[in-house]
Design brief:
Length: 142
């Protein structure tokens, strides 16, 4: 039985494992994940709990800007392990995360995904999202 719920600090080791699969080894430490889960009030992290392990996670960040009269959310991550894909887990995680953000007063959502990630694009479109822009990114070496 798959349970979709908010992440808790004891999920940190499993979240690190999933995050390493999605974003590359050592993207963050379990200790930093615990700290973020406990202190970052602008982020909502939700997980798909398969009982003995986490099958996926979704993160949403609440953003404020002087440019808008409202706060909005950016869905920053959605990852489901291959063994749990095409079973509705990603959709359930995504919709649960949206609902948690809506409970916080959010009415506008943004997200980005890869140009070649047609599965994710299909999911987002089926959830009512439209293509509106191109996102650029840059890493600055210190």
């Amino acid at each position: 039985m798959m349970t979709i719920r908010r992440a808790i600090c004891s999920d940190a080791t499993e979240l690190k494992r999933l995050n390493d699969l999605f974003n590359g080894d050592d993207s963050n430490t379990a200790e930093a994940i615990v700290k973020s889960l406990g202190s970052n009030k602008n982020e909502i992290v939700c997980v798909a709990d398969a009982g003995d392990r986490l099958a996926g996670y979704c993160c949403g960040q609440i953003q404020s800007s002087m440019c808008y009269s409202y706060d909005y959310a950016v869905i920053t991550e959605l990852f489901v392990m291959n063994a749990y894909r095409l079973q509705g887990v990603g959709r359930r995680l995504f919709e649960f995360t949206e609902h948690e953000l809506i409970k916080r007063g959010i009415t506008h959502f943004h997200l980005s995904t890869g140009f070649d990630n047609s599965a994710a694009q299909s999911l987002y479109r089926s959830c009512g999202y439209t293509d509106t822009s191109v996102m650029f990114e840059k890493d600055v070496k210190k």
